[in-house]
Amino acid sequence: MIVGVGIDVVDVDRFVESLTRTPGLRERLFTPAEAALPPASLAARFAAKEAIAKALGAPAGLAWHDAEVVKEDSGRPRFVLSGTVAASAEALGARDVHLSLSHDAGIASAIVVLEG
């Protein structure tokens, strides 16, 4: 059963401008492993974090680092949830989290489906 769906789209250039304009934003939004990635990948991961928040119903108090996007050996992205995000997913009854990322033509996007 689907218990949540979220989608987000990010303009890559605008996102990079935000990272440049706001010192510390990269570290506040991303884990060290994520922060080392190129701009389009960062924008897609930001979209993923926004999409999972939407899929969870945007509860207050979610921590950005509690939804880390990692890549499987196959290249498939997936979340590693912890802390506030894991607790929100559990409260919603989400057992599986499906994630799709894309970035092309200056746009990054992410879709999240929570399955109970």
Automatic annotation (TrEMBL):
Positions with a binding annotation for Mg(2+): 8, 50
Pfam families: ACPS (PF01648)
Cofactor section: Mg(2+)
Catalytic activity annotation: apo-[ACP] + CoA = holo-[ACP] + adenosine 3',5'-bisphosphate + H(+)
The keyword Zinc is annotated on this UniProt entry: no
EC numbers, comma separated: 2.7.8.7
Top-rank taxon, per record: Bacteria
Gene3D superfamilies: 4'-phosphopantetheinyl transferase domain
Class in the EC hierarchy, top level: transferase
Record keywords: Cytoplasm, Fatty acid biosynthesis, Fatty acid metabolism, Lipid biosynthesis, Lipid metabolism, Magnesium, Metal-binding, Transferase
GO terms of molecular function: holo-[acyl-carrier-protein] synthase activity; magnesium ion binding
Localization: Cytoplasm
One example of a Gene Ontology biological process annotation: fatty acid biosynthetic process
Matching InterPro entries: 4-PPantetheinyl_Trfase_dom, 4-PPantetheinyl_Trfase_dom_sf, ACPS, Ppantetheine-prot_Trfase_dom
GO cellular component: cytoplasm
Domain 4'-phosphopantetheinyl transferase: 4-89
Primary role: Transfers the 4'-phosphopantetheine moiety from coenzyme A to a Ser of acyl-carrier-protein.
Similarity section: Belongs to the P-Pant transferase superfamily. AcpS family.
Record-linked NCBIfam families: acpS (TIGR00516), pantethn_trn (TIGR00556), PRK00070.3-2 (NF000832)
Name of the protein: Holo-[acyl-carrier-protein] synthase
Species name: Nocardioides guangzhouensis
